[in-house]
Amino acid sequence: MWFPRLPSERVLRARPVEGPFALTLRQSNTERIYCLNPQAEKAGLHRGMGLSDARAFCRDLQSRPADPEADRRFLHVLARWATRYCPWVGLEGDDGLVLDISGSAHLFGGEGAMLDDMQLRLARAGFAVRLGLADTRGAAWAMAHFGDGIICSPSRLAALPVAALRLGGKTCIALQRLGLRRISDILALPRATLSRRFGTDVVLRLDQALGDQPESISPLSRPPHYGVRMTLPDPIGLTGDVMAGTERLLGRLCAKLKAGDKGARILLLTLRRVDQASQQVELRLAQPLHDAARILPLFERGIEGVDAGYGIDQLRLVATRIEPLTARQISHSHGTDTHDDKLADLITRIGVRIGLENVQRFLPADSHIPERGFIISPAAYSRPQGGWVASRPRPLRLFAPEAITGHGPRPPARFRWRRMAMTTGRAIGPERIAPEWWLSDDNWRTGVRDYWQVDTKEGRRLWLFYTPQAPNWYVQGEFA
Question: Are 81 and 200 within one domain?
Answer without folding.
Answer: yes
